[in-house]
Design brief:
Blueprint lengths: L1 H44 L6 H15 L2 H6 L15 H35 L3 E3 L3 E3 L1 H4 L1 H22 L16
Antiparallel strand pairs: 1-2
Helix pairs in contact: 1-2, 1-6, 4-6
Length: about 180
């Protein structure tokens, strides 16, 4: 039964990470389309999209940066400086990995809590930014705690697997071996 719970947790965390990454990808495509339309409108009609810069910087960029964090961590593809760690015995490497993940869990727990408080506060006052138009800020602020909580869950999963699965390897897959 315990193995089923772990697999269910792993599938759930993987699904959340993939969903957030998909949302970020859609936002990236929308940002591209919105920018192209804005440039065309400005060049051909002298009328750019009102508030384009504000919407792109407030929504699209935030989603593209913070939502894929969990997916990148799930694939072990964050930047990693392990030149000296690779020279150490496997048990020491695993211990250093778990210690690093524990530090990251603390860091992302604090970020999750604080950004959630900020997002709720922003929602309560209906925060907006002023540009050529008023753009509500509060919806985008919820992307940060979602992204941070998701990476926190991935880190907890990796800690559990590093401590219980002797075959767990936190090295990213070789790009040459992955299908295109």
């Amino acid at each position: 039964m315990e193995g089923q719970n772990v697999r269910l947790f792993e599938k759930t965390v993987s699904g959340i990470a993939l969903l957030l990454c998909l949302i970020a990808g859609i936002s990236l495509a929308l940002m591209l389309g919105q920018t192209v339309v804005d440039v065309m409108m400005n060049n051909f009609f002298g009328a750019p999209i009102e508030g384009n810069l504000e919407v792109i910087s407030t929504y699209h960029m935030v989603l593209v940066v913070f939502l894929p964090l969990a997916y990148v961590e799930l694939r072990h593809e964050h930047i990693n400086a392990d030149l000296f760690v690779r020279l150490m015995p496997a048990g020491v490497q695993r211990g250093i990995y778990v210690f690093g993940c524990l530090i990251a869990v603390c860091f992302f727990a604090v970020l999750s809590w604080q950004t959630l408080q900020d997002a709720v506060g922003s929602f309560e006052i209906s925060e907006v930014i002023m540009g050529s138009i008023y753009v509500p800020v509060w919806p985008a602020k919820f992307a940060l705690p979602f992204g941070f909580i998701a990476i926190l869950l991935v880190l907890l999963l990796h800690i559990f697997k590093a401590l219980t699965d002797p075959h767990f390897n936190p090295v990213p897959a070789d790009p040459e071996s992955e299908p295109i």
